[in-house]
C-alpha cells in the first residue's frame, strides 16, 4: 500500500470507529434514562397503591362532620399540603396497611359513637441531604394522631423527593409524588432527573358541604 492509501484507510477507519462510539454512547444514555424512568415510575405507583387505601378509608363520624379536615377545601381551595388529616375506622388505622380488612363495626353516621373512630394523618417527613438529587429526600408516614410520639409512626413510602395532598372537593383528594435520581453522563458528569406521578383518590363515604362533598 502506498502512503496515500494508508492515510485514507486510517481516516476511514477512524471515522467509522468514531461513529460506533457516538452511537454506543447515545444508545447507552437512552437505555440508562429508560431504565431509571421505569424503576422510578414503578416505585411511585407502588407508593400510590399503599397510600390510596388509607385515604379512601376516611369517613365522617357524623352527618355534620367531614371525613378530611386537613387540607380543608373551603379554607384553602386548590392549595397543597405536605400532610392530610382524616378520620377513619380504628381497624383501618391500626391494621397492617398491606392487609386492609373489612371493618368489624359497620360504619353508621347515625350512630356517632367515637369508640369506633380514629384520627389519623399521612405526612411527608423530609430530610435535607446535599448528596441526594435535589438536596433532599423523604418518606410518607402514617401517624395515629400522635404527632409528639414518633414510636407509632408507620412508613408507607420511601425515597421520595416530594409529596403533596390537595383537597379539590367532591370527595376527591389529589395526591402528587415526586422522585429524583442522578443520571451519569459522558466524562463522569451527573444530571438530576425528576419523575412525578399525580393521581386523584376518591373517598367513597360522603362528607358535608363544608368539605366539598355531596
Blueprint of the fold:
Elements: H1 3-56, E1 68-70, E2 80-81, E3 83-89, H2 90-94, E4 117-128, E5 136-143, E6 154-160, E7 162-169, E8 172-184, E9 190-202
Antiparallel strand pairs: 1-3, 2-7, 3-4, 4-5, 5-6, 7-8, 8-9
Strand content: 25-35%
Mean pLDDT: 75
For the sheet with most strands, the description reads:
5 strands, antiparallel
SSE order: HEEEHEEEEEE
Q: What is the strand arrangement across the widest sheet?
A: 1-3-4-5-6
State the end-to-end distance.
88 Å
Number of structurally distinct domains: 1
The count of β-strands is: 9
Q: In percent, how helical is the residue content?
A: 25-40%
What is Rg? 26 Å
Structural class: alpha+beta
Shape: elongated
Low-confidence stretches: 96-105, 209-214
Number of helices: 2
Describe this structure in words.
The protein has one domain. It is 28% helix and 34% strand. It contains two helices and nine strands. A five-stranded antiparallel beta sheet has the order 1-3-4-5-6. Strand 8 and strand 9 (190-202) form a beta hairpin. The protein starts with a helix and ends in a 12-residue tail after the last strand. Mean pLDDT is 75; it is low at 96-105 and 209-214.
Short description:
This protein is of the alpha+beta class. It has two helices and nine strands.
Q: What labels describe this entry?
A:
single chain; 214 residues; alpha+beta; 5-stranded antiparallel β-sheet; 4-stranded antiparallel β-sheet; 2 helices; 34% strand; disordered C terminus
Amino acid at each position: 500500500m502506498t502512503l496515500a492509501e494508508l492515510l485514507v484507510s486510517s481516516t476511514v477507519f477512524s471515522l467509522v470507529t468514531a461513529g460506533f462510539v457516538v452511537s454506543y454512547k447515545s444508545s447507552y444514555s437512552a437505555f440508562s434514562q429508560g431504565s431509571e424512568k421505569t424503576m422510578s415510575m414503578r416505585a411511585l405507583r407502588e407508593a400510590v397503591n399503599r397510600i390510596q387505601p388509607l385515604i379512601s378509608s376516611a369517613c365522617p363520624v357524623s352527618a355534620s362532620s367531614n371525613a378530611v379536615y386537613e387540607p380543608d377545601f373551603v379554607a384553602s381551595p386548590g392549595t397543597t399540603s405536605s400532610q392530610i388529616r382524616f378520620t377513619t375506622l380504628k381497624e383501618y388505622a391500626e391494621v397492617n396497611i398491606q392487609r386492609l380488612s373489612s371493618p368489624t363495626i359497620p360504619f353508621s353516621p347515625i350512630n356517632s359513637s367515637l369508640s369506633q373512630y380514629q384520627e389519623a394523618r399521612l405526612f411527608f417527613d423530609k430530610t435535607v441531604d446535599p448528596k441526594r438529587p435535589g438536596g433532599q429526600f423523604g418518606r410518607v408516614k402514617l401517624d395515629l394522631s400522635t404527632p409528639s410520639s414518633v414510636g407509632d409512626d408507620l412508613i408507607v413510602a420511601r425515597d421520595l423527593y416530594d409529596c403533596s395532598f390537595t383537597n379539590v372537593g367532591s370527595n376527591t383528594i389529589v395526591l402528587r409524588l415526586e422522585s429524583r435520581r442522578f443520571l451519569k453522563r459522558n466524562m463522569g458528569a451527573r444530571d438530576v432527573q425528576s419523575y412525578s406521578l399525580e393521581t386523584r383518590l376518591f373517598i367513597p363515604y360522603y362528607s358535608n358541604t363544608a368539605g366539598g362533598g355531596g
